[in-house]
Amino acid sequence: MTLLLFSLLAASCTSKPEPLVVLVVIDTLRADALSFSGAPVPNASPAIASLKEESVWMSRAYASSSWTLPATTTLLTGLHPWQHRVVKEPGTAGCFGRLREDIPTAASVAKMRGQRSAAFINNAFLAPEFGLHRSFDVYDFHGAERVGHRTAMETVTSALAWVDESGQGGFLVVHIMEPHTDYDPGPTWLGVYTADMPHTVDHPIGSYTHNQWLTGQLVPSKQDQLYVRAAYQEEVRASDEAVGVLVQGLKDRGRWDDATFVLTSDHGEAFWERGIFEHGATLMDEVTRVPLLIKAPGLTPGDNDRVVDGSFVFPLLVDPESETWAEVRDASTAPVRPALMQGTLYRNQQISLVTREHRLLADLSPAADGQRYAELFTIDASGTTALQPLPAEHPDQRIGAAGIELLTELRGNTQPTQPTNPQGVESADVFQKLRAQGYLDENDCE
Ligand SMILES: [Zn+2]
Questions:
Q1: Of residues 372 and 443, more confidently modeled
Q2: CA neighbours within 13 Å on the CB side: how many for 52?
């Protein structure tokens, strides 16, 4: 028996470490902010473009929500927002859900298998108070402020240090905050796209200006809108540089070839395409079309235009044998499913269903006249949703009606989702920080 134990220990000491599964979430990164998918600036993401050469690029990927907490919860659980219910309470109150202990996450699956896990996190909405920290061996949470947050490069350095320390495989989450407002990319990238652009606003954006834009009290000129988008792209460039360091760091350590590496975003960002700025107020393309790059051992790189949402990611993180991998390898694999997204931080809760050619957008709260508000849009061959909805008498509206039926069947109803554990955040400190960022009203529950 002793000899057997010794042999097993000796084998475990000399064998290669178990593979890493890495999830990189770049907060607020639009799919079309990257160099290979329509970025409005040159050389927008050279490192992520190199990563694409080794990955499957899911060109029709959608976030599961319009803001950080529910969208990231879906990435880590595979559940839609109405299932995990880590959402904001609809209406004027600001109570937030907290992940139930009985819901498995990618970290709890890793733990169950005896694998290590770590997350390096930089957004207040991913604070341990919301429950996503559960089962991670390391939950390195630095995020409480969008101004002066830990940089992408510092985050990646910490993540690589964990890889070195653990010396083993396991599950690693790297969260990068840069593209989120206030668009302060640091000295390396500040001005790289904006230096010669005419403008009357400045970046980093002050909180007063930010709130005026967010609430729609102030709409900048077209010239300033273009400037703000270019400023955002400087943050994307800073993120890209850090991704390059992370990938190279794994290669240098001999940990790349057998790693599964998934890069995505929790949501995008609106730049007044429909009169709205930032995220959290609409589920349309600018806020929900996100990048999804998947690199895995034996996976042939290429493009895949299958319509998927955030729930697609979870099985890739926890199960190398999952049938979802067949859908990554072949866009035409059955079954065909619509992408589903739900939840807004501001305004009424919305839900949206996206197929290859149509998008249904519905407001879950009845309007003052008791009617439920829903619109159907066409989607063109490039995957872009039309700016205007189809007229009410258009024959395609039957597709919208079928979509409502499907949503009702999937959700059990078409009511707004109430947050689970509605006491929400336990720490008043975190609430204060969220408040300071303008996320909460003064009369929120505590
Ligand atoms: Zn976010």
A1: 372
A2: 19
**Distance from CA of residue 260 to its chain's centroid?**
18
Q: What is the DSSP string of 280-304?
A: SS--SHHHHB--EEEE-TTPPPEEE
User: pTM of the predicted model, to two decimals?
Assistant: 0.93
| Prior bond of 204 cis (ω within 30°) | yes
CA distances from 128 to 69, 83, 119, 445 (A): 11, 20, 11, 18
| Three-state SS at 377 | strand
At 107, is the secondary structure helix, strand, or coil?
A: helix
Calculate how far, in angstroms, residue 260's C-alpha sits from the geometric centre of ligand 1: 23
Q: Are strands 170-176 and 20-26 parallel, antiparallel or unpaired?
A: parallel
pLDDT (0 to 100) of residue 429? 67
Q: How far is the CA of 45 from the centre of ligand 1 (A)?
A: 19
Q: What spacing in Å lies between the alpha carbon of 433 and ligand 1's midpoint?
A: 15
Question: Ligand 1 centre from 8 Cα, in Å?
Answer: 44
Is residue 442 over pLDDT 80?
no
Judged by phi (left if over 0) then psi (alpha if -120 to 50, else beta), residue 43 lies in left
User: Which residues, other chains included, contact 372 with Cβ-Cβ below 8 Å and sequence gap of 6+?
Assistant: 362, 363, 364, 366, 414
- Within 13 Å of residue 105, how many CA atoms lie on the same side as its CB? 23
Identify the pLDDT of residue 446: 52
SS3 270: strand
CA 306 to centroid of chain Cα atoms: 18
Distance of CA 209 from the midpoint of ligand 1 (Å)? 20
Distance 300 CA to ligand 1 centre (A): 30
**Ligand 1: centre distance to CA 28 (Å):** 5
What the chain holds in terms of domains, given with CATH numbers, is 18-338+427-436 (3.40.720.10), 350-415 (no CATH)
Q: Average pLDDT, whole number, for the chain?
A: 90
CA of 386 to the centre of ligand 1 (A): 25
Task: Please indicate whether residue 316 or residue 6 has the higher confidence score (pLDDT).
Answer: 316
How many whole angstroms from 38 Cα to the centroid of ligand 1?
Answer: 21
Average pLDDT for 364-380: 85
146 Cα–ligand 1 center, Å: 10
Residue 266 Cα to ligand 1 midpoint, Å, equals 5
Going from the C-alpha of 319 to that of each of 22, 46, 286, the distances in angstroms are 13, 30, 31
By the CB criterion, residues less than 5 angstroms from ion ligand 1 are 27, 68, 266
CA 270 to ligand 1 center in whole angstroms: 12
Instruction: Map tokens 């960002």 to a residue.
Output: 269
Read off the tokens for 63.
């976030």
